[in-house]
Amino acid sequence: MRIDVNAFLGAYPWSRVPGTAPASLLAAMDRVEIDVAWVTHLPGLFWRDPVEGNAWLYETCRAHARLRPVPVVHPGLSHWQDALNEAVAQGAPALRCDPLCFGLHPSGPELRILAAASGAARVPLLMAVRLEDARQRHPNDVAGELPAAAVRALIRSDADLRLVVTHADRAFVEEVHFGSTPDEARRIWWDISWIWGPPEEHLAALLATVGPERFVFGTGQPLRLPENTVAKLDLLDVPAEARARIESGNLRDLAAD
Amino acid sequence: MLIDVHAHFFPEQSLRADWRDYNASRLRAGERIGIGIHVTSTLGTFGRRSPTYFPSPADVVYGNDFSLALMREHPGRIRGYACVNPNYTDHALAEITRCRSAGMIGVKLAASRRATDPLLDPICQRARELGLPILHHIWQSRRRDWPGQEASDGAELCQLAKRHQEVNFILAHIGGGGDWRHTLAVVRPHRNVYLDLSGSGVDGGMLEACLSVAGADRLVWGSDITMETGWAKLRHLEHLLPSADLDLVAWKNAAHIFPPDSFPGD
């Protein structure tokens, strides 16, 4: 079983990206043997009211059983609680909030309120550190990257909050993990899409120091080739049990936590 | 057969205390990926005694000697580029000749001098005389000067390639940062410029765009400092290309642009 927690549907506003339609994403999943993908409506992330993309997302996921909706919640807008309640009602595996895309302070009062509500609703909050390499972004794509300090602040802000952080590199993971108490660190899951394999061996190092139970399978597709995450695992010398945990098993812990 | 046209191994006199582990990891991962030959360049001491992209003449010699030692240690798996600093013209020319005599098969220009600068002309002339391709470090879409390097972008390399049409240029790491679309917009007419697919970038659509602009006969496969991204691109190409075209990217184009007898079976 392989579950991709980091996938998108819909056009990217900053460049033409092929394969953003549901059928194309499903074909890509078949190509690299991904069973299920958690998906967010990508253009909605950049809309003034990102929640407006959620209805299409729910409808699309109802039509495709292998796609699970990760709807966007914008805590700076007055109807954010409706979006959260709808996500719960729809059985969303996580909520998405990328505060810097919305012009919000990444650990400011709006985010802390959302963190508390997410914890109370028992729905994990998913956040991306970045979507693209900073060296190649569009000149007008100026939203900052999620700082590690914000993740530390948020996980400390509510004891029930669970976070899934995507697109983090080794230094980011280490800074947050070892800058948190064991209880705080236990409530954060990291997708491996942006962590380097050999010869730098960043992923191998993190599995040895942070532990395989903290990592989940994510690709960032279709903005990134999903083959990358599979290749990274294929280059790892890890027991089959640890690989299975990363590919899907740890998500059972996340859901049951 | 798979040839990695953009590999690096670290020498003892670099800033990496883990240089042995790093090098062993590259070879181990290469075996798993199926890399038959790693074509490596050593950029001096990678910043220990002189800047990575502005290596001193002494460090240039040290780095090239390290690559030559690797070639001797792994004759079936490693080939080398002579890395030179064109600001020291006489030294660079002598180093290219020395390294070619010792078995190196290409020239590496990093970012010591802009590709449009006339100082690169004698380097290209020497490469032409010896039949060597030039792997040129490229910052895809350079909007400003970046610290630590005098980087060139694809358009600047194409100006150099236009002046030296008998030399084959490998435009480094299309996935290595910067806007690769900026590069693709200029390379199409320059038949002596090959795109090296290495780099950490695995953007959706990048390979399709490279194929559209340059065709399978002008793409060469490489990894640079992240090998899983190279393997991912190779796997995606298996999905995009018929096997004959995949062979071009995997090794045949490299076999064509490097000197004869550079690789087993040439």
Please tag this protein with its features.
heterodimer; A: 257 residues; alpha/beta; TIM Barrel; 5-stranded parallel β-sheet; 3-stranded parallel β-sheet; 10 helices; 38% helix; B: 266 residues; 8-stranded parallel β-sheet; 8 strands; 42% helix; globular
Account of the 3D structure:
Helix content of chain A is 38%, strand content 12%. Chain A has helices at 22-31, 54-63, 80-89, 109-121, 148-157, 170-177, 182-185, 202-209, 227-234, 240-256; strands at residues 3-9, 36-41, 67-69, 95-96, 125-128, 163-166, 188-191, 215-216. The model of chain A has no long low-confidence stretch (mean pLDDT 97). Chain B has helices at 19-33, 57-73, 89-101, 121-130, 154-163, 180-187, 206-214, 227-240, 243-257, and strands at 3-7, 37-40, 78-84, 106-109, 134-136, 169-171, 193-196, 219-220. At the A-B interface, helix 9 of A face helix 1 and helix 8 of B.
What is the strand and helix layout of this fold?
The complex is a heterodimer of chains A (257) and B (266).
Chain A: E1 3-9, H1 22-31, E2 36-41, H2 54-63, E3 67-69, H3 80-89, E4 95-96, H4 109-121, E5 125-128, H5 148-157, E6 163-166, H6 170-177, H7 182-185, E7 188-191, H8 202-209, E8 215-216, H9 227-234, H10 240-256
Parallel strand pairs in A: 1-2, 2-3, 4-5, 5-6, 6-7, 7-8
Helix pairs in contact in A: 5-6
Chain B: E1 3-7, H1 19-33, E2 37-40, H2 57-73, E3 78-84, H3 89-101, E4 106-109, H4 121-130, E5 134-136, H5 154-163, E6 169-171, H6 180-187, E7 193-196, H7 206-214, E8 219-220, H8 227-240, H9 243-257
Parallel strand pairs in B: 1-2, 2-3, 3-4, 4-5, 5-6, 6-7, 7-8
Helix pairs in contact in B: 2-3, 3-4, 6-7
